[in-house]
Structures are given as C-alpha cells and as structure tokens.
Design goal:
308 residues, Rossmann fold, Tumour Suppressor Smad4, six-stranded antiparallel sheet, globular, metal ion binding, NAD, ATP-binding, NAD+ kinase activity
Length: 308
Amino acid sequence: MSGRSVLVVAHTGRPEACRSAALVIERLSKAGIEVRVLDEEAPDLHCSGVQVVPVSAAAAEDAELVMVLGGDGTILRAADLARASGTPMLGVNLGHVGFLAEAERDDLTSTVERVVERRYHVEERMTIDVIVHRNGEVAATTWALNEATVEKAERERMLEVVVEIDGRPLSHWGCDGVVCATPTGSTAYAFSAGGPVVWPEVEAMLVVPISAHALFARPMAVSPRSVVAIEVLPDTPRAVLWCDGRRTVGLPPGARVEVRHGAIPVKLARLHRTPFTDRLVTKFGLPVTGWRGRARPGAGDAGGPAGG
C-alpha cells in the first residue's frame, strides 16, 4: 500500500451509484490506495478488501480525499464527515444539476486517474455557523455549507419574524421563512427563493425572505463579518430551522437564530480551473448564441486595430 487513503461515499439507493462506487473502489485499490467505506453503505456496495468505518467525525480522518458519488444531497451528507477532518471532497454527479460536483458520470474513469496521479487542486468554501437561543439560553449549535433556513412549521399560518443585522433591527416580516445562505448556497434554495447568484470567491452572506408580505423584502448580501439574527415572535406559530436540508431544530415562539461566518470551511477538490461563468452556463443550459468574445487585434472589430 502507498500509505494513501480515500473515503468513498455513495448514494446507495441508486443502483448506478453502487456500480460507480464499485468501479472507483476497484481502480483505487489496484493503484495501491486504501479505500474506506461507511458501515451503513458497505452491505450495498458488496466490495471486498476495503476498510469499513463507522459514520462519525473520524471517518475521513487522515484520508487524502472523500470521493462522493451521487447528487448534491449526497455531497452535503458527506460534507459532515469531510469538514470535521479538513479532508477535501470530490463529487461525481449522478443526480440532476449537481452544482457541488466536480465531475460527471461520463468522466468517472478519467476522474479516478486524476485522483491516482494527484492531478487536482483544492479550494475552500465558506460555511456558516448557527446558534439557536431559547429563553436566553443556547439550545443548539449547528452549521451549513449551503444555507440555514428558518421556516414556518404550519402550512396554514404565516410566520412572524424580526430580522436583525449586527445588533440592529432591520424589519418585521410576515413570511413563509428566511434563508441565510453562503455564496456556495446561492445556486440552491436561495436561488429558488429569488436570491442572486454569487460567485464562490465572493465572501458574503445572503439574506433572502421567502414570500414575505412587506414593502421591504428584497434579497440582501451582507458582510461576511456580520451577524444575522432571526427572532421568531412570541405570538407566531412554531417554526423550524433547516441547515442544508439535513439538520433540523424546532423553534418555539420566542426563539432566536443567529447566523455568522463559519469557523471551519469545507474543502472541495477541483480537477479543472473552469470559470464559474462556464459552470453556470453548463448547469443551467444558458443560451450564449451570438457571443463574439472580446475583440482581437487585427480582427477589424471596434476596439482593436483594423486588419490590412
């Protein structure tokens, strides 16, 4: 063995993901790389010669990579393990849009080759830390890579909240909820709620109201040093906090949720230095017909010297 280790996480509910995981495990093992799989996934993967590890913060400890086969939901699940150990994640998209993934299913063989040859780079993504207060006491602490959302828990009634930025009240909203998102999460729930797309290298937090009945209820981008607080008013129905659509905390009337820049980033392994603009065009199928690009010297276009 080379002393290298990779944790493979798969959406085992999809036969395609299990087949892809088996291929990845086989090729990594042949290259002398130790492969770990989670104990809850091992029975579905039917792979021998792997190290089976429990689902815990130590699952990816000292591993070189966490390779994830599935959609963004699977990547967010794996982020719980990767963040705890500071291990980069490399996602192979087997879902739909797959914004967090770096490779597509058709690139699986070349993706494994690049991992074996260490031909990838690592970038850090901002996270958010979330604290829930009840009756003046800290009731829960959690985090998110994409977003933290305070939502109404009862469909038939509107949620009443006051939003605070840096210790000052901003507005009282009757709404379905409020999304606090990272730049990474700007293409997820916040996007669906009408928020802007933010390039990943921009350090900011988004505050996006959901179906708010208010004159001032626009999406906002605040400083990464800001603290955003959402207070559930005492006379409102109960609410619920969702982080990345995975971790949930009940919010009784009077609860307070504070959101700030995360202390620990998530690391993503990248195979290509593709501009984020190109990623948007590809993932959303954006029309770019008619684009001519910048003028080239000698091309006769305005802004460049005429050809002779």
